[in-house]
Input
Amino acid sequence: MKLATRLTVLLVVITTIVALSVGWYAVNSSTHSAYATIDNTINSVVQSGEGNPDAALSDAINADEKNNYDLTLDVVFANGSVTQLISANTALDRTPSLSNVHSSLKSVVSEANLPGFLIRSLNIGGGDYLVVAASTKSVKHASQQLIFRVALAALAAAIVMVVVARLFMRRDLVTMEGLIDFASNVASGNAHEPVPPGLGSRDVRELRQALATMVVALQEKIEIESRHAESMQMFIGDASHELRTPLTVLKGYTELISNADVSADQLDRALGRMRKEIERMETLVTDLLLIAEVRELPEKSMEPLELSLLVSSCADEFHDDQAARRLDVTIDPNVWVRGRRDLFERLMTNALGNIARHTKPDVAVRIALQRREGSVELRIDDAGEGLPEYGAAPERFRRFDSSRSRESGGSGLGMSIMFDLAKAMNGSMTTSASELGGLRLTFLFPAAN
Output
């Protein structure tokens, strides 16, 4: 059953229940009031004759005639015979018994042998009694008519509700049915279906907007996951290639040194090359493990860290190792960030190690740490050859030029490791051309103070 049909049925049921409840209350109140009127009429006649049995009959008759009540007055004698003194429009057509008389002396009652009538008795002396009776036929007929009108009113209200619901909710229902079909298509994998137009009430338009936003986010998530899966496949392929190369070299040299005719010089060269390949493979595995660790770092592992002291210490060590270089250092004091000391030290080691490895020994270097509004900026410039392109996020195992090769010790992971380290500490890294003529690395981190 469609949503529109369900809502319409629900509204009709609610309207019908409400109309019938109100009608039942009206019928019940009207019937109760009518019976109370009959009771009052009978009681007024009986009360007019109470207290004086000798004049009770004449007083009761006078009260009935004076008020023109539609009542039947029967006299039941002590021997059980009955005489009807006054006949109503709907007269009592059955003979009341002495048992009826005695049961109705105190209040108005209905008797099983006198259906359709209410009676009350009055002692008129000498063992005789006056029975005052009133027909309930008109009350029952009026109640039936009222019930019929209530049923018609409930039916009319239900029809009106159907028409009103269709008129006022048509656009909402059409839009919601379209959104349901759209959501079903998205769930089936067709996430590129256009979102239905936003017609109807504000709630429906907000629902459409929320659904559209969710689908866009889902599409972006799918695209990101696809890119991640593709990137991971490339990463695994590149990593296996990078590891296969030193393993092939090791295998070749192992076969060489197993030859009994190998000379001492050849053995020394082979062992040296094998040692170098093992060290490079060890570095590569360490870098890969670091990348995996950085991606899974929990936020709670970060703590306040005085970056001013750490950068100053790394700069001093670099100057001690690269004494031939002109090093300019500008560091704002008391600069704090949230992070991990070992990760910042690795970031600085990678950045300065790349300069030491891939530029000439006398190339100038500039290190600047400055506090910005709500953030901290770390810049590392060199006067080397720079990069062929800037700005893009670094790719795994990519070497930008022939100087950054396996022979120089590079694995192609240095830049991407720095990028991941900065991201893990809620920061960012960008590359650009330096004023010194080479490469500028710019790191931005949220300030911790």
